[in-house]
């Protein structure tokens, strides 16, 4: 595959359940680039998982760590970077990605997201909440900003990961 964004990282954005991590891993493999996941990097740096970061340090500390981790990931060799769903909502993070990387929004419908995340652990925003309601609210808040990504790719319910990679490579 000819590298579609030579010298620049490719950053995947979108809501929880859009497929950023699983599709990102395969995209990186196809392009022969390293893959990194900002949630995972934050967990490594904090020495605890995301639910406990939210519980012990609070969401504000998580967002701050997320901003710093993504700034660091954007330096150095071009990668495929999967971000947490809220990363793009931070103006500084968004500006850093817009400056240095190619952003790809994995756009999924409410029912697709819901089927992928409801009842699964590890996502404090959904913890003890009605997943449908939370996702609906996040779609309303975030999709207008996700739309500013360089590229938008539909993450449909039936699309497997390789199909998603093909869609991304066609779109960029
Ligand atoms: C969040 C999404 C999560 C994680 C954290 C907050 C969000 O990542 O960063 O739980 O604000 O949408 P995924 O999008 O990978 O689930």
TrEMBL record:
Localisation: Cytoplasm
Cofactor remark from the record: Binds 1 Mg(2+) ion per subunit.
Enzyme Commission number: 2.7.1.71
Principal cellular location given in the protein's record: cytoplasm
Protein name, UniProt field: Shikimate kinase
GO-annotated biological processes: amino acid biosynthetic process; aromatic amino acid family biosynthetic process; chorismate biosynthetic process
Positions that bind substrate: 39, 63, 85, 142
Natural source organism: Pontivivens nitratireducens
Residues annotated as binding ATP: 17-22, 123
Entry's Gene Ontology cellular component terms: cytosol
Molecular function GO labels: ATP binding; magnesium ion binding; shikimate kinase activity
Swiss-Prot/TrEMBL catalytic activity: shikimate + ATP = 3-phosphoshikimate + ADP + H(+)
Function: Catalyzes the specific phosphorylation of the 3-hydroxyl group of shikimic acid using ATP as a cosubstrate.
Alphabetized InterPro entries for the sequence: P-loop_NTPase, Shikimate/glucono_kinase, Shikimate_kinase/TSH1
Pfam families: SKI
Cofactor needs: Mg(2+)
Subunit architecture: Monomer.
Family in the record: Belongs to the shikimate kinase family.
Keywords: Amino-acid biosynthesis, Aromatic amino acid biosynthesis, ATP-binding, Cytoplasm, Kinase, Magnesium, Metal-binding, Nucleotide-binding, Transferase
Protein's pathway: Metabolic intermediate biosynthesis; chorismate biosynthesis; chorismate from D-erythrose 4-phosphate and phosphoenolpyruvate: step 5/7
Binding locations of Mg(2+): 21
Recorded superkingdom: Bacteria
